[in-house]
Amino acid sequence: ASSVEVRNVDKFYGPFQALKNVSLSIPAGKVTCLIGPSGSGKSTLLRCMNFLEEYDRGEIRIDGKLIGYDAPGRKMSARNLRQMRRSIGMVFQQFNLWPHMTAQENVAEGLVRVRGMSKPEAMARAATELGKVGLADKLGNYPSRLSGGQQQRVAIARAVAMEPKLMLFDEPTSALDPELVGEVLNVMKALAAAGMTMVVVTHEMGFAAHVADQVAFLEKGELVAVDSPAGIFHAP
Ligand code: ADP
Ligand code: ADP
After folding, report:
1. Nearest ligand to residue 94 Cα
2. Which residues of the chain form beta strands (DSSP E)?
3. Which intervals hold domain ABC transporter (predicted)?
């Protein structure tokens, strides 16, 4: 499992400063939840961790290695960035499955393309991963024939199949009907229990309070509090 060190990070969208001197240590094997009002910079901070967004100042290190830059102001090659991203999985609010592929093919695709597995080997592995998220009986379903909760579990299985050392979740349950949220949170809990380093942007305060090891609260681009769930939610 990876650790992440965010140090004095600034991020601008044009003249607008979305992150203001953010520093945060994300310990290996723990769950960190990013919470705060809409527009406070949670998603931006998460996306900086795999360099889907470029940060403008400061450092983000994964296991001590700077992501996105070789040195301050000098961007890393696309090849090196791809290499670093191989150990980082990401799950989005919209499930982003390939609509023309079955659940099993969605999971197998990356194993073939990135890992160079044979198709049969990748399909077998995909079946195993889908079994772990409770979808052993949905291998042949296309995304349009799955509920939102099932689609999101396929997306998680697809990310986990790549054996990441860090998983980033951007509001993974926000697009789901309320009755489907629990099945996705349960899969995430199992992943946490297995020792995955997880960073989760969420509005699910129950999850943050009961599953997170650490909660970081953002407001207007600033990290205003970092504490245990007890410290954040039961403060006087
Ligand atoms: P949150 O995830 O907390 O809702 P975001 O990180 O999505 O917040 O956005 C933080 C702020 O940055 C918001 O004011 C948002 O409008 C702005 N923002 C996000 N993405 C962009 C972008 N691509 N261009 C300009 N402004 C953006
Ligand atoms: P979310 O709340 O899930 O972050 P948003 O509607 O805020 O969704 O953002 C959707 C997309 O639009 C993201 O890629 C984000 O970076 C971009 N975005 C958000 N705010 C702005 C903005 N003010 N200007 C330009 N792009 C934005």
Report:
1. 2
2. 4-13, 16-26, 31-35, 57-62, 65-66, 69-71, 74-75, 88-91, 166-170, 197-201, 214-219, 222-227
3. 4-236
Burial of residue 179 (CB within 10 Å: 0-12, 13-18, 19+) is: exposed
Under a CB-based contact definition with an 8 Å cutoff, are residues 141 and 90 in contact?
A: no
Which ligand lies nearest to the CA atom of residue 37 in the structure? 1
Query: What atom in ligand 1 is closest to the CA of residue 16?
Result: 26
Structure-token match 């659940």, residue found:
103
Beta bridge partners of 35: 217
pLDDT tens figures, 111-138 = 999 999 999 999 999 999 999 999 999 9
Ligand 1 pocket: which of 13, 55, 169, 200 to mutate (most atoms within 8 A of CB) = 13
The helix/strand/coil state of 89 is strand
> Environment class of residue 73 by beta-carbon count within 10 Å: exposed (0-12), middle (13-18) or buried (19+)?
exposed
Polymer length of the chain: 236
Ligand 2 atom closest to 38 (CA)? 2
Q: Does ipTM top 0.85?
A: no
Yes or no: say if 204 and 210 are a contact pair by the CB < 8 Å rule.
Answer: no
Cα end-to-end span (Å), the chain:
34
Q: Is the pLDDT of residue 189 over 90?
A: yes
pLDDT in tens, 11-23: 999 999 999 999 9
Ligand 2 site residues, Cβ closer than 6 angstroms: 43, 93, 171
From 43, 46, 169, 170, mutation site for ligand 2 pocket: most ligand atoms within 8 A of C-beta:
43
Model-level pTM?
A: 0.91
